[in-house]
Each structure stands twice: as C-alpha cells, then as structure tokens.
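Consider this pair:
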Amino acid sequence: MVRGTVNAKHLIAFRGLDDDFDTDNGYSGKVQYGVSLRDPQVADVASGGASNGFESDNDATGTTNTPRTSATFSNMSVFLPGPLTAADPAFQRGVHIRRNSAISLFNSVITGFRRGVLVDGAATEGNITSGASAFKNNVFADINSGSATSYFAVNTGSTFDANAYFNDAARANTTFTTVGALGYSSTNFIINTNVPPAFNLPAASVLNTGASFTDAKLADAFFDKTGTFRGAFGATNWAQGWTNFNPQITCYNAPGLTLSNRKADEQVQSLSVAPNPTEGAARLTFDLKRASTVTVRVLDITGRTVAVVRNGQKLSTGVQNVELPTSLQAGLYVASVTTAESTQAVRFVVAK
C-alpha cells in the first residue's frame, strides 16, 4: 500500500496474497516500470477478500478529502497465469478503482483476471468522465478466459458506459481474447522454479509498439519516453541479475550461496515448499541424488521442532514429495531435511 507523493521505477510484486499495487489516502506519486507475477494458487486469505492487480481508494469511505488519490502509472505489467479455471476464486480484477479514487494508467498490460477493470461508484465514474482519471494505451488479455463481457464493468444500476469509455479509439486501449496473442515467451510466466521468468519481449510481440506519452499526465520529466513498448519490459529484462524469484532455495546460512548453485554431487537438491505462503496444506519437494535414510522436521521461528514428518525413513533416489502438517498455526516455519551427509532447510509461511 502506497501513500504520499513518492515516485518509483522498477517495482516487482511476486506471489503476493492481496493486491499488488494498492493506493489510497491521497497518494499522488508517479510510477513507471512495475511488474506483478501472481501464483494462481496463492491469493487473499481473508473471508470475502479479493486479490486485484490494482486497487485504489481515495480513502476508506470514499470522501472528497484532499489530497485526492491521483497516482499516475505507466508501463506496468500484471500477470495472472492461466488457466483461470484453476486459479483461486479470490482473484477478481486487474484494476479495481473505487471510493472516489482518481488514479490513471497508461501503456500497461494486464492478463488473466476475472474482470479487466471495475469502475466502482458514482464518484469514481465522475473522476473518469472529468478527465481526473485516465486510462490510455493499455492492453487487456485473456480476461475471464476471453469473455467479451468481462473486460470493463460497473456496478449494477450504474448508467456509466465503461465499454464505450475504454474502447474509445482515442484512448487506444486494446483487448485480446488469449494471452498467447501477445507473443510472450512461455518463460514469462514461470513461478517457483530454478529458472527465473524472462520478461523481455520477443521481437514478434504486439507489445513492442503502441505506447504513447502525449497525455498531459505523462509530461513530467520523471517518465521515460524513449520506448514504444507497452508493459514494463521491452527488449531488455531489467529484473535480471538482482532479483530472486525462488527465494525458498536460498541458503540463509551462507551469504551469496543458493541451493540451486550447490555442487551437483550434493545429496539434496532443489529444496522448496509450495504453495508458499500456505493456508495450511503444503508440500515439501526435494531431489535426492542418492538413496538415504531421511528425517524431515518442521521448526518454528525459535528453532523448536513442532513436527517430525519423516523419522529415519529410507528413501530412494529421485524427486521426493512430502506433505507438511495442515495443523500449523499462522507463522514463519522452517522445513529441514537431514540425511547421513547433511542437513538442509527452507523457510515457509503459514497464513490463516
């Protein structure tokens, strides 16, 4: 959640629970180049909660209090990998603009949600019709598996024509029924593996062109105006080299050492927990390079053993899948794997 006037570039939201870019209480900053990559099985755990790409309020009750929430976003990418039928039902909207917010979104791409944009409430509709809030040169793909009626919506009873607004030729928003039409590499949507997602655009992608910076809201020198690509990435993957998209394989006992880079002959490889965070049910996975007697424990944040899942069990060579206890209370835990040669561990979070 962002407030104030801070400006930012190169933001990453990865496998979050609630909303990715959440603004309220007068935030009026500028943001360019932000990416969100969701795990379809990890979403808002609150009763009745929703996971949205963007969610924006002026304040909790939608007053006219100033300063009004009026952030400007450009070159954002929000990805919910499909198929939507397999995604957590909490995933709802690429953009939920409500409660008198006046945020603006330009040159961005949103995929996979059940709704593209929900314009929520008369005050919010008024901000759009007045020009205080603007949406231009954006791309929406594979929304509700391509359902034509799901891209842009308002609340029941509203007379605001969201489809006429977003599909107006002067605003140059574009919709595609499938994410495949965007021309991404399949590695763009990789989650929780040793291979990081490759966000840079292939040369044939339709997203390489179509950006525009002529709107007055983008006139500020903060916004780079050298590229024509829509979304957070052009030909260069600016996330490469300084990000970790599978932190569960990081060895926190030795700075700079990750389990994916351990020697090929080490007995336990590719240790991970999924989903992570979990609401309770989770699976520990690891590759056992040599058959061994294995003990698997779950420890709490103080190092106390709270469960012994495998106790000196003989396991054969290959990938192992171990179900972790579903009775764990909310908190931070460590799953450890002990063999005759070593002990390795991975952190995971239980959120209930």
User: Anything to note?
Assistant: The longest strand covers residues 305-315.
